[in-house]
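TA notes. Do not distribute before section.
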Amino acid sequence: MSVDFNASFSGSAETFGAKMTETPASMTASMKETGGGSASNYEALRNKPKINGHELIGDMTPAQLGITGDRHHTHKQAQAAKVWTVAHNLGKRPAVTVVDSAGTVVIGEVDYLDDNTVRLTFCAAFSGTAYFN
C-alpha cells in the first residue's frame, strides 16, 4: 500500500512542493523548491510548512515528524455475557469486530460511552474476542 500526499506552499516569490509517501515499511517526507528561486531561499519563508509542529526539512522519518502508527486493542471476554463493557483506552471511537470462541463474527450493538470505553450488547451470552481499531 502506498499513500501519496502532495502540497504546494507559495511564498512572496518562491513556490515549494512537499511530498509524503507511506509504504508498509516506512513513511518519508521531503521538501523541494519548485519555483523560480533557489533552495537557500527556504530559510526566508515566514510560514514554513510543518507536520505535527515539526518543520519540514529534507527527508524525515515518521518518528521525527511525530507520526505514530494507528493504535488498536484486543479484548478477550473469558466469561460468557450478553453485555461486555470494555475500556480500550484508545482515545477515539474505534471500529469494533467481535468473534465468538469458535471464530465466527458476531453482530451486536455498539455504544460508545466515551472515547475510551465501549459497551457491546448481544442477544445471547457468549465468550469471545473484541478487536478495536
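Switch to the second chain here.
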Amino acid sequence: MKYILSISLGLSFFVHSDDHEEYFEPNVAEYYVSTFKEGKDMEDMMKWAEKWTKWAEESDALQDYRSAMLVPYYHSGELAHDFVWVGISPDPESHYAGNDHWVNNGDKLLSELNNILEQGNQTIYTWQRTVSETPDGQAAYAVYSDCKLGDDVSAEDVYEAYFAYAKAAKDLGDVAGRKMIFPGAGTSSNWDYDYVQLVTTSTIADYGKNWTNFWSEKAGEMPELEALQALGGVCENERSYSIIPVKN
C-alpha cells in the first residue's frame, strides 16, 4: 500500500475511553488499484458504477457499504494506475457479508467490469480509524502519507495525541478530516511502515485555504502539535487524490 489510500463517507462512530474522551471507533475498508484496458476510460467506469450502485442498493448485505473512486492528482507515478476504488464498512462482519453477496450474485457485473479494467492489480484490506471529520462530513480531496511510529511509541499513543491535536485545531478554524489507516491483507511485501495517514477536505480549494487560514498562522504555537511531534516518527511519500463518490 506504499502509494495508495480512506475517505470520510459517513461511516464514523464514537467510542468512549476510560477517561471519557470521545474517540472514533475503527472501521474497515478495501482498496482496488485499477487500470483501464486499452480503449476504456472513466466514462465507461462511471456507467458501470451507476449500474453497480443500483444493484447494491437492492440488497441488505451492502446497505452499510460506502464507496468512491480516488483519481490520482499529485503522485510520483511509481505505481501506474488510473484510479483506486475504495469501499468502507462499519465492521468486518458487515464487510464480509457484502463480499459474500458480491461473489455469489455479482457475476454479470464482474464480467462487465473485467471488460473495462485490467485484472491482477493490487487489492488491499485495511482497518482505519477516524481522527477528525470535515465540517460537513464530506471529502473531495485526499492526501495520503506512509508513516512510521517513533521508538517505543504505540499506534494508540499516536491516535490519542493526534485526536487531541485535531480537536484543538478545529477550535482554531482547521477544516481537515483525518484518519489513521492500518493495511492488512494485500499489503505490498516491501511496505516498511506502520500506518497510513490520511488528510481530507470537503473541496480541493479548502485544502489550500486551510494552509492559509490555519497552518501558516495558527498551527505552529499549538501545545497539542508539540505533544504529537514529541512522539517522534515520520510520515513521507505524500500523494493526493480527487474523490468521485459512488455509493453514499
